[in-house]
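User: Teach me something about this protein's shape.
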Amino acid sequence: MFNFTVLYTVSRIAVKAIWANKMRSSLTSLGIIIGVAAVIAMTAIGTGASADISDRIATMGTNTLNLQAGRASGGGFSFTQVAKYLTSDDADAIRNEIKTANAVYATVVVGGKNAVYNGHGTIARVMGTTNDLFKVQPWKIASGQLFSPAEMRSAAMVCILGYQTAIELFADVDPIGESIRIDGQLYKVIGLMAQVGDSAWGFDPDNGIIIPLTTMQNKMGARADRPKYVSTVTIQAASFDVVNQTQDEVTKLMRQRHRLQPNQDDDFYIQNLAQMLNTMQGIATTMSLLLGAIASISLLVGGIGIMNIMLVSVTERTREIGIRMAIGASLWDIRLQFLTEAVILSLLGGIVGILLGVGIAKSIETFGSLRVVITVSSILLSFFVSAFIGVCFGFFPAFKASKLNPIDALRYE
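Assistant: First, the predicted structure itself:
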């Protein structure tokens, strides 16, 4: 049966020994402190990065596919002379023929456009698209309205302003019904978007302007040499379960429309955001584990430092060990004494390291504008690892102390 009285007595002796050598004990625990703090901070950064990536892709919809012209090469797009560009007709065909598609919209984005109203100007990216975008993206209209069917058919000179763009152009004035100039052409403001915040979509809606796709194609002249040109067709599958099926059907349809032979490669690329999410999460998890593994080297160094100091302590207290053995202390009593001292040193270092690691992580989040996620599991793991290190690296000094000959120990000076 476990004797708590013995453990209490041994712990008191260990604490007194540690307190008697405060500076040495502090320096001994420093390796554990640094190691635990590094593990917690690095793990928090890695976990935060993974969560941030997941959230950003989730806002785009994990049941969403992006179709673009070109061939996938080297992880990106390799646009070739043989690649057929995408058109509005491609988007219409997908919308009409793919039954598992819940919503489909095409986009063309151009940058560096001058937007001016009453002497106030800004530089904005302009997107030409259809109302289906608002069925897929989590973007809301704060006031005004979307494009009417008549405006879409006639390529009307109307626009919807992003939140920040409206502030820069109109300040406190209600923009609905007013007209702005985009590269010298007048556009009537019919809608104002609510603030979106960070977006991983590639187009910042807060600092952008949205116009009808037909207007972009016919009057802004994004690609005058390519009738009905669109840069991206976004397809929202009916559910996550049919994403892959939708991708296969879109691939088959696009090969038919582009008249590709069986031996010809696709001249388009479909980006599956669900697959991207899994890939990015895997990369983030690997990086988090790598950072944690690198930081764990400090724990190993700290453990070696504890073992070194405990060996010195055994040498310094050889006579004390001999006296304890002479009055009846068993081998395990001696081992427990030094093992407890090593574990307490490790645990104290672990506790201070946890507090320091949490502080570092919070500081990085506050001043470094990085998202960090501190998990209870990482804190508990660091605490138990520090205790484990105390047991592992304290056992050899404790074993060495217990193997001393009592007579030789008593005669040691």
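Now, about its shape. The mean pLDDT is 80. Residues 85-257 form one domain. If you'd like, I can walk through any region in more detail.
User: That's plenty for now, thanks!
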